[in-house]
Amino acid sequence: MSRYVSKAIQGMAFFFAACAVPHAWAAPDAVAGKAKAQLCAACHGENGVSSIPDTPHLAAQPPLSIFYQLLQFRDQRRKGGGMEVIATTLTEQDMRDIAAHYATLPAPAPQAGGDAQKIARGQQIAQQQYCSSCHGAQLQGQKHVPRLSGQSHTYFVTQLRNLRSGARADMDGTMASAARSLTDEEIDAMAAYARSLP
Ligand code: HEC
Ligand code: HEC
Fold this sequence. Notes:
- This protein is mostly helical.
- It has helices at 2-19, 30-36, 41-44, 63-74, 83-86, 92-104, 116-128, 132-135, 153-165, 174-179, 184-196.
- 54% of the residues lie in helices and 0% in strands.
- It binds heme C (2 copies).
- It comes from Limnohabitans curvus.
- Residues 1-26 form the signal peptide.
């Protein structure tokens, strides 16, 4: 764990330094963000809960996580779902406002109806791998680290495989090292566990 955490801190320091463009912005405005997020509802759902399996829920995501992912898409460092085009139409103020809006919405309902044995196995692996040291005790996310609880199973599995293979480059390399040794079966079990959490 300490290995990940110290790498994470180093990586974050680098990332924040790289982003520290001298630039003034107004405080994030969740009300303005709600209006701006109309563009996003067709895919991410009216309340930030998507009904499309490969499209993430954004409700209750930490605002910094949404903001940094939008920057990654805008700068073409992450691609997928056409987001690399959509993000180029947003200003940084739009991104902060939209992120503030989604952060205020209620989290997606936990889907605990699945295979109880698989969920228990997913919980065990997540504990062994210290996923919560970055993603939070209930995998609810924090700072720039995304929320995983309640997330779509398909989205979780696809993204974690892409982070493992490097097809999705993460902002500081810590998630790629956390994913490197995971098997498909372990990823599937952890997705079931994450989806079951409130
Ligand atoms: C045409 C459908 C579509 C629209 C419209 C759309 N998105 Fe997306 N969005 C996606 C898909 C699909 C992904 C997953 C991309 C991937 O596979 O990497 C995604 C991913 C994201 C992510 C990454 C979330 C995470 O947990 O990493 C954010 C943030 C996001 N979208 C925000 C927005 C915002 C804000 C808007 C509106 C301005 C928007 N999206 C409009 C389909 C869409
Ligand atoms: C050192 C901190 C750290 C650890 C440990 C860690 N993660 Fe992550 N995780 C991150 C960060 C940061 C991101 C965002 C990556 C990016 O795009 O830059 C992320 C992204 C993800 C995503 C994509 C989510 C989304 O919304 O797109 C999944 C799934 C994920 N992590 C699962 C896990 C699992 C499962 C574990 C345990 C095996 C784990 N993580 C351990 C920091 C961590």
